Amino acid sequence: MSKTIRELADELNVSKQTIQYHYQRLPANNRQKDSQGANMISPTAERIIKDKVAKPLVAKNQQTGSKKATKASEENNELVSTLRRELADLKSQRDKQLATKDRQIAHLIRLIDQQQQLQLTTLEENRELKAHIQKISGLLETSGPFQKRQNSTSEEDVYKNKSNKNWWHFW
């Protein structure tokens, strides 16, 4: 079944001019025209044109494919190197943050240690003060009756002294 130049161009996914170029280079016995004078491509001419058009397309696709693969490979290499740099930067930042946190933790541990030492010192001082207070309380309790006796005798002395100082005693 014969096809037009446009139909074959669409089928092979090439331009109409490409098909026409190859059609004009066919031997005269392979070229046909329809009743209206339009160029028609016979099945034999179609095979010849397909062979001529398909081979360069395959080579071109392979070349384009290898160029695309090379370009994709270069892009991948650039992407990989960029990602490696970013990863190294992130690791560096993480290490700096960890070092800062370690210093903060060490400082807090020192502060807690100091606080515990102060608490122990305060507790020991409180025990000493309690013991001293108990000792003083014990001394006060034992001296309590003696003071009462002393206070009562001094009151008697004051009364005697007052009584001796009346005016009639002077005579």
Break the fold down into its secondary structure elements and pairings.
Elements: E1 3-4, H1 5-12, H2 16-24, E2 31-33, E3 39-41, H3 43-164
Antiparallel strand pairs: 1-3, 2-3
Helix pairs in contact: 1-2, 2-3
What does this structure look like?
A hairpin with a 5-residue loop joins strand 2 (31-33) and strand 3 (39-41). With 171 residues, the protein is mostly helical. It has helices at 5-12, 16-24, 43-164, and strands spanning 3-4, 31-33, 39-41. Helix 1 crosses helix 2. It has a domain at 3-54.
Please describe the structure with a list of short key phrases separated by commas or semicolons.
171 residues, mainly alpha, 3 strands, rod-shaped
Summary?
It is built from three helices and three strands; from the N terminus they run βααββα. The chain has a three-stranded antiparallel sheet.
Q: Any idea what the radius of gyration is?
A: 60 Å
Order of helices and strands: EHHEEH
Q: Name the poorly predicted regions.
A: none
Helix content: over 70%
The tally of strands reads 3
Strand order of the largest sheet: 1-3-2
* Computed structural class: mainly alpha
The major pleated sheet works out as: 3 strands, antiparallel
Helix count? 3
Morphology call = rod-shaped
Which oligomeric state applies? single chain
- Name the beta content range: under 5%
Mean pLDDT: 81
N-end to C-end Cα span: 178 Å
